[in-house]
Design a protein that fits this description.
Blueprint: H1 2-66, E1 75-81, E2 84-92, E3 97-98, H2 104-113, H3 119-136, H4 156-162, E4 166-167, H5 184-190, H6 195-206, E5 229-237, E6 242-251, E7 261-271
Parallel strand pairs: 3-4
Antiparallel strand pairs: 1-2, 2-5, 5-6, 6-7
């Protein structure tokens, strides 16, 4: 009688262990499937978001050219496409720091303000930057900001902080920056680190104030470019938290046989940051 009970107990334990193991296996399969669904969804959204971003960019570019619109400052345009209303930011590349032309004093200020380097280190890196681009000039200059990683002592963390404010295609022959298009962070560079002046100028610009006062900015850093080379940033949202950002730089000057020339494109999946 005891042997029968003992065997039954072992059988019950074996069954329970088998059920538990099956539960773990099923749980793992379900988890893997859910992960695969998330990856497939993210990939689909990336492709769709990029396609929509490019489409609304070209629609808007065509409208701007057809209406002979002149860019006065960075603006947001709503563009309807495939049942969506996509906001597209349009800015002249003159509002960015040109890696091929910007003078050394402005590079130093940017490396201090945005790159977070001490003055001496900023000056040393700016000098290597200038030396390296002079060498690159013999082969046509730099074509993308990423080429700055070839500058000696340029660390990736420094590059990552300044990269959003760089271009290789501004219309500004002098390499100065047009404050009417400069991002808010770059306005702090143009004000030599004075956040209050930068914020005041940015606020006035956002309100569309006519005849903005630029006298409080560093005059040696600012200028007015041709405003024909333009950056379109289209953010295509899919839910409350994620969106695909497509950036397209176009030369909208006179190009024989075509409405514009594509200078550079990029895209990325983004997450919205809660205030």
């Amino acid at each position: 009688m005891m042997r029968i009970r003992s065997s039954s107990g072992f059988a019950l334990i074996a069954v329970l262990w088998t059920v538990a193991a099956l539960g773990i296996i099923v749980g793992g399969v379900v988890s893997a499937q859910r992960q695969e669904v998330r990856l497939i969804t993210a990939s689909r959204q990336a492709v769709e978001g990029r396609a929509i971003g490019q489409a609304v960019t070209y629609i808007l570019a065509k409208d701007i050219l057809a209406g002979n619109q002149k860019l006065q400052y960075t603006r947001q345009y709503p563009v309807a496409y495939m049942g969506r209303l996509v906001q597209v930011e349009v800015m002249a590349l003159d509002g960015l720091v040109d890696i091929n032309k910007t003078p050394k004093p402005l590079l130093i200020q940017m490396l201090m303000t945005l790159g977070e380097l001490p003055p001496q280190e900023a000056e040393a890196l700016a000098q290597k930057w200038v030396d390296q681009r002079e060498t690159a000039r013999f082969t046509g200059g730099w074509h993308t900001p990423a080429e700055l990683m070839g500058v000696p002592t340029m660390q990736y963390d420094i590059f990552a902080r300044i990269a959003p404010y760089l271009t290789a295609h501004s219309d500004m022959g002098s390499g100065l920056v047009d404050p009417l298009f400069a991002p808010s962070a770059l306005l702090k560079v143009l004000s030599k680190g004075n956040a209050a002046i930068a914020a005041e100028f940015s606020d006035a610009r956002q309100k569309g104030v006519i005849g903005l006062d630029t006298t409080r900015l560093e005059q040696a850093f600012i200028g007015v470019g041709g405003r024909k080379k333009v950056r379109f940033t289209a953010n295509v949202g899919f839910d409350a938290e994620s969106f695909v950002s497509t950036i397209t730089d176009l030369d909208m000057g006179s190009t024989p046989g075509q409405p514009w020339r594509v200078l550079q494109t990029s895209w990325s999946n983004q997450r919205r940051v809660s205030p």
